[in-house]
């Protein structure tokens, strides 16, 4: 694992009182992954990024980056460690205005003492070439466009060949065409084996990344929840997140029982469950097995019927669930017609499966 956050909490103390910007974040990012971090303004994205780069310290919890406990580093060692392991790219490039582009790219090598000094310029020029800026190497930052400055900032981030690139809104101040080409550069870098973590407001770009981490109200929306409700937008997910409860069941435990009243629906965030129904002869038949990213318990809530099946925790590990009460489910479906349509379709399919087991009309 290249980046691992365990129960990271960040509370800011200010005159108005304490504000918890991160509420116990668990996150793992593997080597070579390309991850987009998205979320509403103020949700905690930058705070999360600052935990990874060591720019800010967590109030509690642990942050491991490239095998190092970041916040166990002494302040004096932090800057050099960061310089060698992380390439950091900001929205506003932050090139040094009094240095030429090639000098800007040489700076991290000078700072960390990586590469012999006679090789640094050649390496900087190679990196500028890689981002399509070699011909402008001698220019000052103010003499090139924003998109070009960001390319140089990326070359600078690559100076010490760090395994991880962290970018906070790298395309935020670029027009969409330039943003697209800078994004393409990140993709090429990820394809070449770099781990890339990129905060973005741009949903179109986020869609193009294989893995999306959604931050809502200081928490990460479970990837299973994203999978269960793929058609919710960021605002809807941000509203859903605080309504979700968490529950765990040991293997074999009954989560819902056929014939009972139902008040909650469940999204599986870890493990598997078995769905079974009682036949006319009273014997139970297994009708389905569901895993992470799938939901159950919705039929009773939507169709206003008793539980149509019994669901048990399966496997040998505890099953973890996100729990959604009746009114929360109603709220979210009321806001997202596509999600409502998906759920209606799934319910029809599930009712048909139950009917196949000779149960039509028993509870429906
Ligand atoms: N130094 C600080 N002191 C007090 N509160 C802070 C501090 N830094 C951030 N916050 C608060 O923490 C919350 C999360 O901020 P953060 O900058 O991480 O959000 P964000 O998702 O990056 O937003 P944006 O997309 O607008 O940059 C905000 O409510 C912010 O006001």
From TrEMBL:
Residues 228-350 form the Cyclic nucleotide-binding domain. One of its GO terms (cellular component) is plasma membrane. It comes from the Bacteria. One of its GO terms (molecular function) is ATP binding. Residues 3-242 form the ABC transporter domain. The keyword ATP-binding applies. SMART domains: AAA, cNMP. Keywords: Activator, ATP-binding, Nucleotide-binding, Transport. This is ATP-binding cassette domain-containing protein.
């Amino acid at each position: 694992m290249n980046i691992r956050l365990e129960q990271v909490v960040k509370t800011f103390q200010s005159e108005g009182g304490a504000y918890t910007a991160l509420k116990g974040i668990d996150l793992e990012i593997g080597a070579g992954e390309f991850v987009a971090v998205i979320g509403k303004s103020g949700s905690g994205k930058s705070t999360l990024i600052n935990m990874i780069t060591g720019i800010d310290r967590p109030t509690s919890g642990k942050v491991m980056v490239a095998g190092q406990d970041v916040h166990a580093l002494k302040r004096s060692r932090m800057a050099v460690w960061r310089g060698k392991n992380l390439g950091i790219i900001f929205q506003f490039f932050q090139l040094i205005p009094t240095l030429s582009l090639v000098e800007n790219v040489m700076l991290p090598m000078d700072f960390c003492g990586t590469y012999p000094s006679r090789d640094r310029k050649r390496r900087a020029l190679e990196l500028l070439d890689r981002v399509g800026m070699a011909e402008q190497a001698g220019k000052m930052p103010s003499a090139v466009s924003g998109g070009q400055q960001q390319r140089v900032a990326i070359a600078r981030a690559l100076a010490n060949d760090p395994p991880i690139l962290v970018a906070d809104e790298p395309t935020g101040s670029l027009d969409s065409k330039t943003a697209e080409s800078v994004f393409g550069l990140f993709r090429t870098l990820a394809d070449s084996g770099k781990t890339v973590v990129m905060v973005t407001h741009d949903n179109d770009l986020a869609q193009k990344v294989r893995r999306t981490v959604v931050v809502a109200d200081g928490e990460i929306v479970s990837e299973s929840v994203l999978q269960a409700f793929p058609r919710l937008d960021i605002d809807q997910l941000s509203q859903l997140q605080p309504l979700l409860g968490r529950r765990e069941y040991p293997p074999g435990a009954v989560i819902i029982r056929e014939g009972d009243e139902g008040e909650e629906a469940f999204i599986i965030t870890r493990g598997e469950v078995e769905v079974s129904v009682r036949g006319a002869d009273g014997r139970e038949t297994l009708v389905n097995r569901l895993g992470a990213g799938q939901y159950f318990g919705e039929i009773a809530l939507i169709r206003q019927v008793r539980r149509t099946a019994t669901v048990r925790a399966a496997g040998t590990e505890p099953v973890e669930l996100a729990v959604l009460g009746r009114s929360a489910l109603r709220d979210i479906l009321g806001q997202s017609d596509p999600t409502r349509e998906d759920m209606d379709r799934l319910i029809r399919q599930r009712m048909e499966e139950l009917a196949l087991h000779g149960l039509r009309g028993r509870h429906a």
